[in-house]
Amino acid sequence: MDELPIRTGDDVVRVRQQVRNTAAETGLSLVDQTKLVTAASELARNTLVHGGGGTARVEVVKSANGRTGVKLQFTDEGPGIADLGLALTDGWTSGTGLGLGLSGSRRLVDEFELNSQPGAGTSVVVVKWSR
Amino acid sequence: MIRLQEDLADELTATGAHGVIIDITAVEIVDSFIGRMLSTIGSISRLFDAETVIVGMRPAVAITLTELGLSLRGVRTALNAEKGLQILNGKSRPDG
User: Fold this and answer.
1) How many Å apart are CA B46 and CA A118, to the nearest integer?
2) pLDDT tens digit string along B11-60?
3) A82 near A116, Cβ under 8 Å?
4) Can you give the pLDDT at residue B12?
5) Which of B36, B63, B68 lies at the smallest CB-CB distance from A104?
6) Which residues of chain A have pLDDT under 70?
7) Å between A97 CA and nearest CA of chain B
8) Which candidate in B32, B43, B58, B72 is best for mutational testing of the A interface (most A CBs within 10 A)?
9) Is the pTM of this model over 0.95?
10) Measured between alpha carbons, how far is A125 from A86 in angstroms, rounded to an integer?
C-alpha cells in the first residue's frame, strides 16, 4: 500500500501515475485502467481544491470470491461537505468546475463511498475490480 | 495551460486562421479539468472566427469521457488530423 501526499498540482500527476502503475500490475483492462485513473484524477483534484490538500492511498485488494482490485482512498481535513446528495448531483458545482467530479467518478468505478461532515473533512473510497 | 491559451490567441490574431486542430493522441486521460480546458480553447478560438477540432482521441479515453458525462462543448472531434482538416475545409459530409 502506498500513501501519497496531495499538496500541489504535481502531486495530482504523481497520484495518477501511481494509480496507473498499480492498475496495470493488477491486470485491469486498458479501459478500466483509464476509468480508474480518470476517477483518481477527479478525486485528487477535489482533495487539493476543495479539501485544501490531503492524502491518497493506493492499495491492491482481493474480494471474497477471489477477484483482484485496486482500492483508492482520498482523505482531507478541509471544510467538508454539508449536503452529500447535492454534491453527488450531476452538474451541481461549488463554482470552480463542471460539477462532474464526484458524480462522474462514481460512474467510473465499481464501489464508491463518500464520508464527510461540515468541519470534519472528507473521505472518498473507491474500488475497481478486475474482470 | 494559460500560456497555451495566450499563445493560441496571439497566433489566431497574427495569422487569421479559421481552424485549430488539437491532437490528443498522446493524452492518456481526459478528466473534467482537461475537458474544460479544451472547451475554453474552443470558445477562445470561436471569438477569432476559428473552429476547433480535437483529433486522435484514444478509444479508452472516449469511453471514459462518455461515462464521466463530459461533452466537450464548443469543439468538434475527428478520428485523425486528416479528417480534422476535412471538417475545417468544409468537406466533412460524404456528399460534400
Assistant:
1) 41
2) 999 999 999 999 999 999 999 889 989 999 999 999 999 999 999 999 99
3) no
4) 95
5) B68
6) 91-100
7) 7
8) B32
9) no
10) 18
- Please report, for the domain that includes residue A55, its CATH number: 3.30.565.10
Count CB atoms within 10 A of the CB of residue A65.
6
Query: What confidence score (pLDDT) does residue A86 get?
Result: 79
Q: What residue type is A120 in one-letter code?
A: A
The number of residues in chain A equals 131
Window B:13-32, CB contacts with A under 8 Å = 28-32
Is A61 in the B-facing interface, judged by CB distances under 8 Å?
A: no
Domains of chain B: 2-88 (3.30.750.24)
The total domain count for chain A is 1
Q: Can you give the residue range of the structural domain that contains A75?
A: 2-129
Nearest to A126 by CA among A62, A25, A57: A57
Residue of A103, A126, A104, A125 lying closest to A28 (CA atoms): A126
